[in-house]
Amino acid sequence: MIPLSYYLLLSGILFVCGVLGFLIKRNIITIFMSIELMLNGVNLSFVAFAAHWHALSGQVFVFFVMVVAAAEAAVGLAIIIAVYRTRETLNVDQVNLLKL
Amino acid sequence: MTPNPYLWLVPILPLAGAAINGFFGRRSSKKAITAVALAFCGAAFCLALLIASEFSSASAPYYFNLAHWLRSGSFQVDFSFYLDQLSLVMLLVVTGVGFLIHIYSVGYMWDDDGYYRFMSYMNLFMFFMLTLVLAKDYLVMFIGWEGVGLSSYLLIGYWFTKDSAAAAGKKAFIVNRIGDCGFLIALFLMIKHFHSLDFTKVFEQVNAWPTETAGAGLLTAIGLLLMVGAAGKSAQIPLYVWLPDAMEGPTPVSALIHAATMVTAGVYMVARSSAIFERAPMAMVVVAIIGTLTALFAATIGIAQTDIKKVLAYSTISQLGYMFMACGVGAFSAGIFHLMTHAFFKGLLFLAAGSVIHGIGGEQDMRKMGGLRQYMPWTFLTMTIATFAIAGFPPFAGFFSKDEILWKAYSSEYGSWVFWLIGVITAFITSFYMFRLWFLTFFGDYRGTAAQGDAHGHDDHSHGHGHGGPHESPWVMLGPLVVLAFLSLIGGWIGIGGRFEHFLAPVFQSGSAAELAHETAGEAAGTGTETLLMLISVSAAFLGLFLAWTLYFRRPQLPARIAASLGGLYQAVAHKYYIDELYNVLFVKPLIDGSTEILWHGVDQNVIDATVDNSASAAREVSDTVRHMQSGNLRSYAGWVAAGGAVVIAYMIWMGVWVR
After folding, report:
1. A86 in a structural domain
2. What is the pLDDT of residue B456?
3. What distance in Å separates residue B647's CA from the closest CA in chain A?
4. A8 touches chain B (CB under 8 A)
């Protein structure tokens, strides 16, 4: 049996990768994916704890997160397409004004 | 004690007039303003007459309780009014003379732009003055006391665009505050020791108090503090300096407030507190000395003044000194008697002087008058009566009251021949400077220029009509003069045979029945002496007349030569003994310097302002550094969030390690 700490370590690494990607990358799509990575890192720790403690609530929570992430992906991609259509760039540093 | 439900109406009526004119006067016609001001003031006078006609010594004192005011434990103050013989005299004097002066003001102030304002202030003054004299306890009296001070301030500074008038108003107000401070402390002492401010209750307890013959005690302290208040309001040494400056106000104001009524409030207050003073002989002596010194001191200054109103102002101070002298020797009724006759003749003198000033276009310098007798016969006639009255010639009013005071100063148990002697000298000086004024104004040749007037008038009121030369005033002004002249002539006769004194006796004999016996015994023994003293004081008055006649009528070039030969002494007198300058150096300048250096530059700028300024600039500096965090770059915010999260996690891990 793989110990709990391994899962948690992996979860932390995934989360930090997400954070770093969010901070460093300029492309909106990459940033968006980094957010998904952070969510999944957290999901991993949820299921790991749920399996360890034999509690269902953690797994239920993961489903919630997935549903929200799916909704977010739909809205977020729509926004990204709208941004690209109006500004013809996906570089966040050039998208620093709400006003056109 | 009989209730009298009309009492409260007397003060309220002028208040209503003041309110109507004050709120709506700006848009009303002058006729409407006049009607309101005179109607409400006249109604108060009629009501006072009605109350007086129903007054009977058997059912006096009357009272009326309008409302409860303060209640704190057993201490209680009501808005209640009180009428005994003393307040009745004051009531009639205030409403009567006040009404006459209101009529006069219509003529005098008609062409002034602020006519409605003036009339409103005058009515307001009547309200406060009537509150003062009708109060049933010291606190309500204090309201009136402060209120007349306020009206006085407003009316002295009535021509507030003129710097000197505004400054004079402030001076009067501030000097009065010093006196009021003493008055207030006296009230606090009464609250502490008598638990009441009601006249009847306080005097009841005072009468149970032993007379403080050996040394000073509570009653002496209260008496002296009351005297401080009285000295402020009634312009006695050392607080008299505001009254001469108060002549900056319009002349009817000088007549009403600074001669006939308000300045006598101090005398009234001391007389009202006679129960306290009678049990504090030391305070009595102080009152008598202050009064006597003021009488002499102010009279000497009056000799050398050239402004007609300033002469009358110093004369007022001097006459008030007489009244305090009377109170100080225990002759309260003589003081009130003189107060009444003084209201007649001094009110008349000021109004007549106002008529003169009006008639020659605003000039107040007596050196530019002269010969006005033929131009304004009625003013001359009335002024003559007033001058003879104040100088103490029989049978004019001033003779009876002044003689009464001088006799009491000599014969009373508190009196002494010193007071009498100074009083007679003062009477001589009074007679001299009043006839000097009379001769300078009405005799000789007219020394002003015919076209003089509007351009450089002292009184700053621009007359609508042109000034061809000196002219008589309209009848609306002469009417009050004639009535007052009549009163100055016969007003003293009610004192013949001690009738006035007996009328007031129930008010003043509260404590000592023994004094009455003493007095009748003294009267029997002293008739011969009294006649002698009377002859001396009358001859002093004649001497003053003769001297003034010699110097200012027969040989008018002589005074200048005498003044030159006296040199420094004359200069000192002409400059009012440099008292204003002395006060400036002693009190005003240190106060201003101290306030500027310590309070303004020291405390206000370096402590209070510095605290505020420095905390503001500190906040700005901190913000200046921190504001760089808010760059508007989304990813830098995210970076801060991540860094913050990392710090929190690190902290928690470290804490976890540490706990274990």
Report:
1. yes
2. 40
3. 14
4. no
- Of B320, B293, B523, nearest in space to B410 by CA: B523
Residue of chain A whose alpha carbon sits nearest to that of B634: A96
Calculate the average pLDDT of chain B: 88
pLDDT tens for each residue of B299-322: 999 988 889 999 999 999 999 999
pLDDT confidence bin for B563, thresholds 50/70/90: confident
Write the pLDDT tens digit of every residue in B333-349.
999 999 999 999 999 99
The residue-averaged pLDDT of B210-239 equals: 88
Residue B330 three-state SS: coil
Give the residue on A whose Cα is nearest the Cα of B636. Answer: A23
Q: What does DSSP assign to residue B211?
A: P
CATH number reported for the structural domain that contains residue A15 in this entry:
1.10.287.3510
Q: What does the pLDDT average to over B441-463?
A: 60
Residues of A in contact with B638 (CB under 8 A): 22-23
Whether A23 has its CB under 8 Å from any CB of chain B: the answer is yes
Residues of B267-279 as b/e, b for ≥16 C-beta within 10 angstroms?
A: bbbbbbbbbbbbb
Q: What is the ipTM of this complex?
A: 0.78
pLDDT at B453: 43
What would the DSSP string read from start to end of B17-78? Answer: HHHHHHHHGGGS-HHHHHHHHHHHHHHHHHHHHHHHHT--TTTPPEEEEEEEEEEETTEEEE
Write the secondary structure of chain A as one string of H (helix), E (strand) and C (coil). Answer: CCCHHHHHHHHHHHHHHHHHHHHHCCEHHHHHHHHHHHHHHHHHHHHHHHHHHCCCHHHHHHHHHHHHHHHHHHHHHHHHHHHHHHHCCCEHHHCCCCCC
pLDDT at B531: 87
Query: What digits encode the pLDDT tens for the residues B504-557?
Result: 888 886 444 445 545 555 555 567 888 888 899 899 999 999 999 888 888 888
Distance from CA of B607 to the nearest CA of A (A): 47
Q: What is the pLDDT of residue B458?
A: 42
Nearest to A92 among B632, B635, B642 (CB): B635
By the CB < 8 Å criterion, does A35 face chain B?
no
Strand B62-72 with B2-3, pairing: parallel
Which structural domain range is residue A37 located in?
4-94
Measured CA to CA in angstroms, residue A50 lies from A41, A43, A62, B567 at distances of 14, 10, 10, 116
Chains A and B: how many Cβ contacts under 8 Å?
Answer: 13
The alpha-carbon gap from B660 to the nearest alpha carbon of chain A, in Å, equals: 19
Q: Would you call A22 an interface residue with chain B, using a CB distance cutoff of 8 Å?
A: yes
* A51 in contact with B, Cβ within 8 Å: no
Instruction: Give CA B534 to chain center in angstroms.
Output: 30
Q: Is residue A80 part of a domain?
A: yes
Total tally of structural domains belonging to chain A: 1
Q: Is residue A99 part of a domain?
A: no
* Residue B322, Cβ density class (10 Å: 0-12 exposed, 13-18 middle, ≥19 buried): buried
**pLDDT (0 to 100) of residue B505:** 85
Closest CB to A19 among B633, B634, B642:
B642
**Which residues on A lie below 8 Å from B641 (Cβ)?**
none
| Segment (H or E) for B226 | helix B218-233
Residues 6+ apart with CB under 8 A from A52: A4
User: Cβ separation of A23 and B633 shorter than 8 Å?
Assistant: no
Amino acid at A77: L
Across the range B479-499, mean pLDDT stands at 89
Is residue A100 a part of any domain in this protein?
Answer: no
- pTM for the complete prediction? 0.79
The answer to whether B635 contacts A19, with C-beta atoms less than 8 Å apart, is: no
Spell out the per-residue pLDDT of chain A, length 100, in tens.
Answer: 788 999 999 999 999 999 999 988 889 999 999 999 999 999 999 999 999 999 899 999 999 999 999 999 999 999 999 999 998 888 888 887 777 7
Predicted confidence at residue B395, as pLDDT, reads 85
